[in-house]
Sequence to fold (318 residues):
Amino acid sequence: MTIQTSEMPDYAIEAIGLAKTYAASGKMPEKRALKNIDLKVPRGSIFGLLGPNGAGKSTFINILAGLVTKTAGKVRIWGMDIDEMPRASRAAIGVVNQEITMDPFFTPLEALELQAGFYGVPRRERRSLEILRAVGLDDKQDAYVRQLSGGMKRRLMVAKALVHTPPVLILDEPTAGVDVELRRSLWDYVRELHARGTTIILTTHYLEEAEELCDEIAIVNHGEIIACEPTPQLLRRLDRKTLTIFPREALSAVPPELAGLDAALRPDGALAIHFRTGETGIGRLLEQVRAAGVGIDDLATEEPDLEDVFVALTSHPA
Ligand code: ADP
Ligand code: MG
Fold:
């Protein structure tokens, strides 16, 4: 199935009032995994869906992929309503699921050819070898899948998602089980696809990962979108860092000279100073600390993690 690229939608994905409630089963109570989600993924973006485990990220992706049926709301993929045009809309996405699922008895080349057949890609239009080369698996084309490492399997899943040349590639927690080196090459390839026009959506629970790759980030928590902004804008709102100072001599309290700062004495004797990078820098803070007569034995800085992000976003609404 070919995608009509002459009709370019503004949004690769649009969800309106999307909700999913998993029915109770056995001892498990009913679960509202998605609550009235509105989300627009601009065509051509690398879009991050960031949230902790259990937030509802995979549920969202699985609704797009047709693996989970939504309870309410509308979804358009590449401008096509998934209820009205289930097949055509799904042909516009390639989805790499969170769990590694593949038949261990096929070789990577066979797996790609089967997948291409599944999507009805005519033989002369297949690009299996080219795709294997792109994900760095060409030397494994005839190995059995069960002989591949976790990272290689993950890359084969990416390859499988690309056989029908979808304009939108969706990766659900793609770095799970991938070592640092493979992660680099995977990201390089994702960036290359993006540069050639593919819209990329990825889910992650790592702020750093979303920050590094995505030009827009939606933060999802307990089935709700609590922020959705271009990455620089979001980071500006989260520009809190912590400077931790281990004093040479024990302090009994925060020195009065530092009363104007957001400083606290921790139980381990360290002085923790929270600050906004947009307002002050570590150099200025250290001068203030020295001026207050505090000798510095050691120091450390901490970036915000996902927990801090939630605190920042929910306590300082935009
Ligand atoms: P995430 O991908 O962000 O970790 P999920 O979408 O997998 O989150 O899960 C969201 C919530 O829905 C969790 O509380 C999870 O336990 C629940 N859930 C996911 N899949 C099912 C299912 N098939 N049946 C019942 N509950 C589910
Ligand atoms: Mg998940």
User: Anything to note?
Assistant: The mean pLDDT is 90. The first strand starts at residue 11 and ends at 22. Residues 180-195 form the longest helix (16 residues). The radius of gyration is 24 Å.
